[in-house]
Design a protein that fits this description.
By secondary structure, the chain is α/β, with parallel strands linked by helices. It contains 7 helices and 9 strands. Helix 1 (about 15-25) crosses helix 7 (about 210-220), helix 3 packs parallel to helix 4 and helix 4 runs parallel beside helix 5. Bound molecules: NADPH dihydro-nicotinamide-adenine-dinucleotide phosphate.
Length: about 240
């Protein structure tokens, strides 16, 4: 057992999840890293880490990974339900299979991650759920229709969970970034949508680094358990909408 509690991160193989896993590891926490690209997790070589090839759509696999890590490092004190994809596209033309995939990962995957740790946190009356939404969970954008739906879901559930878990002293923090430099655009198949997004991004001078989001999550986590940052909304300064 290490002195600092275990932190679990879904979607730890790139972008915001990877940056957050690195930040908590550097702060001395053991970390459970989950994603489908296990080779990326292994390559991070973080101390006191457990890497698991987990698809967040598989509730049993998420729970099993958490149980394995807890057997080694003690209870998960923070779950970052971060894994997500953005199949952005014109809703009138988009293949509904893309809708299903976004809903399965961004909605069901987040709930599977919550499920794996929530009852333990309630029993211990300690813990933090970090829920990955987006600025697109606060307002809508062209070609973001179902993506926005998934992120509005995360916002709604997070607020309800926050109220419910407050009497158990469990914190719920929702993260709502604007444009962050990650691999998220790899999931955009529609060439027009991708071109428009990239043009808008270039016009505002690009996105910001994932390490800034990670630092804010670490800062919020490090506050005493009776202090909750309810939401982190961070965007490039020049991002108007
Ligand atoms: P990346 O594409 O860099 O990271 C996405 C991560 O999610 C990867 O680690 C990927 O791992 C994982 N993932 C995707 N699908 C699954 C799955 N089925 N099971 C397990 N893991 C999965 O993008 P970001 O870091 O940007 O994305 C992280 C979160 O941030 C997402 O929820 C995204 O919606 C949100 N977000 C991003 C913004 C941005 O501008 N970048 C803005 C606002 C929110 P692997 O493929 O190895 O499984």
């Amino acid at each position: 057992m290490t002195a600092k509690p275990l932190v679990a991160v879904t979607g730890a193989s790139s972008g915001i999840g990877e940056a957050t896993a690195r930040a908590f590891s550097a702060a001395g926490h053991p970390v459970l890293l989950m994603a489908r690209r296990i080779e990326r997790l292994d390559a991070m070589r973080l101390p006191n880490s457990i890497c698991r090839k987990v698809d967040v759509r598989d509730r049993t696999a998420v729970t099993a990974a958490v149980r394995d890590a807890e057997a080694e490092f003690g209870p998960v004190d923070m779950m970052f339900a971060n894994a997500g994809i953005a199949r952005l596209g014109d809703i009138g033309k988009q293949d509904p299979a893309d809708w299903d995939e976004m809903i399965a990962i961004n909605v069901n995957g987040v709930m599977n991650s919550v499920h794996a740790v929530m009852s333990g946190m309630m029993a211990r009356r300690h813990g933090t759920l970090v829920m990955m939404s987006s600025i697109a969970g606060r307002k809508v954008y062209p070609d973001h229709t179902v993506y926005c739906g998934t992120k509005f879901f995360v916002h709604g559930v997070s607020e309800s969970l926050r109220e419910y878990l407050s009497s158990y002293d469990v914190r719920v923090l929702v993260v709502s970034p604007g444009i962050i430099e990650t691999e998220v655009l790899d999931g955009v198949k529609d060439p027009d949508t991708l071109a428009n997004y990239k043009a808008n991004k270039a016009a505002i001078g690009g996105g910001i680094g994932a390490e800034h989001v990670a630092k804010l999550i670490l800062d919020a986590y490090q506050l005493p358990q009776n202090a909750l940052v309810q939401e982190i909304c961070i965007t490039p300064t020049r991002q108007k909408y």
